[in-house]
Design a protein that fits this description.
single chain, 253 residues, mainly alpha, 81% helix
Length: 253
């Protein structure tokens, strides 16, 4: 029964994550619906999503979407930010960031609806040094968010890297995948040592997540601009629902 619930949703999550980020908003609730305790759901989801992210990162690297300088800076700053955020949440809790994100979502949705072509900023690209600095700042800030709360991290990275760093959509997504892979692996190691990963279920779900990621990466490579925007809109709506459930004290979806 757990496999019947988790595996199809893990495939869909992988497909969404490869194109626009935010796959965890689909896969994590699947584990909870299957009846896993929260910590086991988070740990096992981290295993399957890491497998899927590895597959899509490899696919994007094969297509040439990973620029080594951007990936190196993004991963280093993302991991540093995530470490700071995970420690910060121990001091102040995550309610503040949830309210801030809920307030910011209308602006994010307005930007996505208003911007029909997410590649348009890439036409005014910056020099390498300025691009690296902006990428570092974005990765550090979103890294803090990832460690502090987390859902939608990939989606926010894509949006900021295209709009602020003026990366083209493919390079922004490739950089995002590399950052997510690094943070996922780090978190997976922590969860594994905490004995909260159901390896069998995670591996099987991970295969489905890989399939979804590869399908999404293939479609993204052929039609990135047209398909990314509507999927981001769906992810933002699902994220808003998730925030409302969390803030109203209803069990997390």
């Amino acid at each position: 029964m757990e496999l019947l619930i988790v595996c199809p949703l893990a495939l869909i999550a992988g497909f969404v994550d490869a194109i626009a980020g935010g796959g965890g908003l689909i896969s994590l609730p699947a584990y909870l619906f299957a009846g896993l305790p929260v910590h086991q759901a988070i740990g096992t989801n981290k295993l399957s999503s890491t497998m899927g992210t590895l597959a899509s990162t490899w696919r994007f690297a094969k297509h040439g979407y990973l620029a080594a300088p951007l990936v190196l800076v993004g991963v280093c700053c993302g991991l540093t930010g995530s470490f700071c955020g995970s420690n910060l949440v121990l001091l102040v809790g995550d309610t503040v960031i949830k309210w801030l994100m809920l307030a910011a979502l209308p602006l994010i949705m307005y930007y996505v609806l208003r911007t029909r072509d997410l590649d348009r900023y890439a036409q005014e690209g910056f020099g390498l040094r300025k691009t690296l600095v902006i990428t570092a700042i974005i990765a550090a800030i979103i890294g803090v968010y990832d460690g502090f709360y987390g859902p939608g991290t990939g989606t926010f990275l894509i949006l900021l890297l295209t709009s602020c760093a003026h990366l083209d959509l493919r390079t922004a997504n490739g950089t995002t995948k590399a950052i997510n892979l690094a943070t996922n692996v780090t978190a997976l190691v922590v969860f594994a040592f905490g004995n909260v990963v159901l390896v069998g279920l995670g591996l099987v779900a991970g295969v489905f997540n890989i399939i979804g990621n590869l399908l999404g990466a293939h479609l993204f490579a052929h039609d990135a601009s047209r398909i990314t925007r509507p999927i981001i809109i769906v992810v933002v709506i699902v994220f808003a629902i998730r925030l409302l459930f969390d803030l109203l004290g209803t069990p997390s979806i």
